[in-house]
From TrEMBL:
<dbReference type="InterPro" id="IPR023198">
    <property type="entry name" value="PGP-like_dom2"/>
</dbReference>
<dbReference type="InterPro" id="IPR006439">
    <property type="entry name" value="HAD-SF_hydro_IA"/>
</dbReference>
<dbReference type="InterPro" id="IPR036412">
    <property type="entry name" value="HAD-like_sf"/>
</dbReference>
<protein>
    <submittedName>
        <fullName>HAD family hydrolase</fullName>
    </submittedName>
</protein>
<dbReference type="InterPro" id="IPR023214">
    <property type="entry name" value="HAD_sf"/>
</dbReference>
<dbReference type="GO" id="GO:0016787">
    <property type="term" value="F:hydrolase activity"/>
</dbReference>
<keyword id="KW-0378">Hydrolase</keyword>
<dbReference type="Pfam" id="PF00702">
    <property type="entry name" value="Hydrolase"/>
</dbReference>
Amino acid sequence: MDAVVFDLDGVLVDSETVWDEVRRAFATAHGGTWTPAATRAMQGMSTPEWGAYLVEEVGVRLSPEDAAAGVIAEMDRRYEAGPPVLPHAVDVVRAVAARWPVAIASSSPPSLIEAFLRATDLTGVVPVVVSSEAAGAGKPAPDVYLLACAGLGVEPTRSAAVEDSTNGLRAALAAGMAVYAVPNPHFPPAPEVLAEVTVLHGIEDLPGALGVPRS
């Protein structure tokens, strides 16, 4: 194995419920009607994709660009006091990065990824950060993972990905990577997708699964 690529939301930051809460409230405030399928449908989408989804499927009465900007502004506000970093996440990234190059491949906008790196002092530890805004398509398309691997100068088939959601797992599998799942307890991945990957109990189990010696 040549590199490890981490998802952000749900893997390193406990933010999936925050995204859901913010989008629901924003949709309601702007004429939309939330549907049971909306939460899972938008997990992994790039910003332009979920902005369009809020307008076309949920019925938000704004342009896709304005809908996305409004949601991101509220997420930025929520992160001002620090992102909700998951236990063990920072130590795991540092442990893995001591052995292999690491990257983040996330559907979050760049401002939230940077907020996480600043809050955790991981900016110098994670040399490659890719938002699906720059990848052209969100998950489950493999684009964001392919771009992250290209940034590290490694082949996807010789790299591992760490994910929590159905769409994220499908994206990493489509990229041809070895995939490790830390299932999101709030939005559990589809069983048929979990059957194709290595399932961990928690992020703290990743170093052992990758063969990183205990310090």
